[in-house]
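JOB MANIFEST
job_type = single_chain_structure
chain_count = 1
residues = 93
[input]
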Amino acid sequence: MTPEDRRIRATDAKHLLEHPMFIEAFDAVEKHLHMQAIGCDSDNAQKALRIVISQQLLAGVKREIQRIVQDGIVAEVQLNELEQKRKFAMFRR
């Protein structure tokens, strides 16, 4: 994937993270899982395990989208460096 593709992808990911519907949905699922954890019978290890795994997966999805945003920032730096090298190469001719 080119740095430009990564930058575009990061912009989309950032819009997703900031979109009110995504925030609302993520918060609702997070709250639901929290309420399930609080109400879980301490003797029900299977249910507790499923809740924990669900919370980890939810956090993992958000982390991956944030990673894509960070990758776009790195790609932006790379694009700027390439542009500077091109300018310098043109100047040297």
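[summary]
The longest helix spans residues 45-92.
The chain has a mean pLDDT of 91.
exit_status = 0
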